[in-house]
TrEMBL record:
PANTHER family assigned: G DOMAIN-CONTAINING PROTEIN, INTERFERON-INDUCED PROTEIN 44
InterPro entries xref list: P-loop_NTPase (IPR027417)
Keyword Ribonucleoprotein: no
The protein, known as: G domain-containing protein
Top-level taxon of the source organism: Eukaryota
Record's keyword terms, sorted: Membrane, Transmembrane, Transmembrane helix
Keyword Transmembrane in annotation: yes
Gene3D superfamilies hit by this protein: P-loop containing nucleotide triphosphate hydrolases
Annotated TM spans: 416-439
Amino acid sequence: MEGTRKLNKDCTCLDVALKHCFTHASFDHLQPLFPTVRPLANRVIWFNNHRCTLSCHRRVDECRWKQEMKSQVSCVDEDDCESCRLAYCWWRTAAEFDKCAKLKLGFPNVSILTPRLRLLRELERLALVAPDGLNELQHKLLEYRSGDFWVPTGGITREDMDIPPVNTILLVGFSGSGKSSLINLMYSILGRSGLIPFAQTSSGSSNYTTMYMEEHNVLRSTRSGFCIYDSRGFDYHSTREALEEMSSWMSEGIHHNQPCFRYNDRATTADDAAMENITLRSSLNFLQREVNCVMVVANIAQIYKALKAGDLKPLEATRQLFSFPALRKSNENPLLILTHGDLLSTEERIDGRMKICEHLEISETNGVYDILCLNEYGFPVEESDPVSAYALTEAVYRALLISDRSHFPKMKFKDWAMLILLWLMRFMGFCFAFLADVCSNLGKRQKLRNEFDSRHYKLKP
């Protein structure tokens, strides 16, 4: 401390002396002062060099400390990454995973593999492609415009195809299957929305359900070539009503804010009734969209637990929903999305998927995706589970491939003429059927009247 004060005093004296000399004297007059000024300057230079040396040593010590801390933190990060990797690669703890790992060394005949090994290979494929493939698929979806995946078939050009400006993907499923959570995950992965929820979920409440059709632009882009529709969940005990409602959606189309009222729904108060009337009037202004592809969302945990309890109703209702002919587009089955798999153990999760696919009579590796929507804190998994993120992105990509194959050619003048002629023939047939029914009724009345008159004449004396 005393050395610092002395140095500051010497620097001050040196500065004052030099300023005074250079201001009021020439160079010749400065030479006698050099013996006095030189010791002060030497002391200042020595102290500055000593201070620089100390600061260098201090910086070296700080760098060593930071490197040690960084190495410790990196070790912790590696442990965390390893635990996270085990979390999203959940199938690697399965009993037969060792056999699947040995298959990587060669090129086995896929036809001789068991269904369980084929499933493990498919999950390993997702884990292998996910790190690099996710960004590539995201870029393709961002640049996608309706009809980009269309390929020429049947000798018809693209100009002659009736391609809508936006392809529509519809999510259907039973209550609590996770449709709204799946849409929030799409926003998080494809729209980079973070943890902001766009679709309202039940959050474990059995009282809340989606009452209206909701159109979602999950890319959050004005140039998006597709949209996702969230629908109201069906009831396992009202499958016939669900199929009738889906049939109308597939034939007539859907639009944003379209009511999904059921037979048991009643307006409890006057405010609810007024709100329903306002919604019905406003919903007519939205554009009607044709459904191009369907995703069936199923709660694998709920179905598997019901199976263990001997209840086949959820599985059978899912089969009826998935196998409904109106959902097939371009001879393709709808996509099956399995959710809530984290509520099961590894063996139960694999066994549940195998049983569901076997009952639906579909492949366990083609068009089926096991996606975890929420983490243990209730937030979208996003980048913490790259396998689920890539699986969801691939499912959307696959749905767009199916959508662009389902477009029909534009109707020409000949088609319109045939359609008008068909309607005229139907109208004429209806008229002739009506006239035939009227004439038949008149003939029956006349016959009854004649029989009554004949009996009346016979009874006269």
